[in-house]
Design goal:
Number of strands: 27
Largest sheet: 4 strands, antiparallel
Shape: elongated
Radius of gyration: 27 Å
CATH superfamily of the domain at 23-165: DNA methylase specificity domains
Strand content: 15-25%
Length: 431
Amino acid sequence: MTKYAEYKDSGIALVPRIPHTWEAKPLKFIADCNVRVLPEKTDDEAEITYIDIGSVNYGQGICGTQEFTFANAPSRARRIVKTGDTIISTVRTYLKAIAYIDDEYNDNICSTGFAVYTPRPGVNQRFFFYALNADWFVSDVERYSVGISYPAITSTALSALKTILPPISEQERIVDYLDHRTAKIDSLLADLQSQAEMLDRYKRELIAEAVTKGLDKSVTMKDSGVDWIGEIPAHWKITKNKWLFRKVKNIVGSDQEKYPVLSLSIKGVIEKDREDNTGKIPAQYEDYYQIVECGNLLLCLFDMDVTPCIVGYIPQDGIVSPAYSHYTSVNPKSASMRFYYWWFLYMQHQRLFVSLSNNIRNSINAEHFGSMPSPQPPIDEQEKIAEYLDKKTAKIEGLIADITAQMEKLKQYRQIVIHDAVTGKIKVTEG
C-alpha cells in the first residue's frame, strides 16, 4: 500500500497526522446519539430481543441476545437499535464493547449502558463503525473514562471525542477493503476457535472417561447406585465426601507476610499481587484470610451459577479469602487429592455442583458437600489416573495455548489493518 502525498495536523494526540483532504470531527457533528427509546408505556406482554454489554465482545461484535417480555426485561433495556447503527459501551469501558448493527439485530433493544450512534448523511455507516473500532479511538474512550473499578464515560463526553473522516468516496473504498480483509482474518479466527473448542471437548471427554470408568477398558462395570454417576468399575466403591475429605480453616493472623496471596481463577489457583486492589481484598489480611497448603483442594461452592471456576488444586502454601473452602484428605492412603481434583473438575464441567445445590443461590455448604457421594478407586489406581490425566491434559493445553497465541496475533493484525486504513496511514486505492 502507498501513502498519501500530503498530510496535515489532526489535533488528535493519538493520531497526530492525517491525509490533507481528511477531517477530524467530534462524533456529535457526524452522528446522532440515542435517538430512539422504548417508551415506558410499552405493552407488558410485548416481546423484546435484548443486547446486554456482556454479550458484546471487542473485535467480534454481538455474540448473543436474550428474549424477554417488556414486563420482565431489565430496567436498562430501553435503547432501540436499527440497521447501520454502531453501539459502544459507556460503562466498564475496559471491556471495549463495540458492535455494528446489521439486519439480524434491527429493532433489537440494547442496554442504556450503550451509546447508540446513527451516522448522518455523508457518513458511511460501516466506515463509522470501523473508525470507532480502531485501537486509538478505544484508547481515547478509556482515557476519558472516570472511575477505577467501574470506569464510565457519559454520552456527552463520548460525543465530544474526535474521529477521523475522509471524503465519502474514500470512506466507501476503505469499507470495501476492510470488509474484504477482515472477513478473511475472521474466517481464519473461526477455524482456530473451532480447533481450540474441539481440543477442549476432547480434554473434557478424557477426564470424564478416566474418573468414572478408569483406564482399563476390560474391567467389569457395575451400577454405582447414584444416578448422576452411573456405572463404575466393579471393584470401585462409592463413598461420601465426609469420609474422604476434611475441611480446614486456619486464620493466618500476624504471620500473613510470610505467605503469598492466592486466588482461584479459570487458570487454576494463582498467586495474586498484594498491591493489586481489584477483587475482594480486605485491608487487614490477618483478620480474615486463611492458610492453605500445597497439595490440597480449594473449592468455591457459593453462587456457582456465576462462579467461573469451582475447584482448584493448590500448588503452593499461601493465604486465601475466607469465601473459599480448603479441603485436605482424611487419610492420604485412601484419597489422592490430585485424583479428586480431576473428579471435581469433571463435576464442574458437567455442572453437577449447580444441579446438586438445593437453594436459590446455587450454593453448597460443608454439611451438604460432606454428604455427597464420590467414586473411590483403590489408591494406587487413583494415583495412576491422576498421573495419566496430568500428562495428557498438559499436552492438550499446550496445543490450545499455541492456537490461542495464533489467534491473539491475528486479532492484533486485524486491528492494525483497521487502524492503518481509517487513519490514512496507508492509501487504499481499491476495495
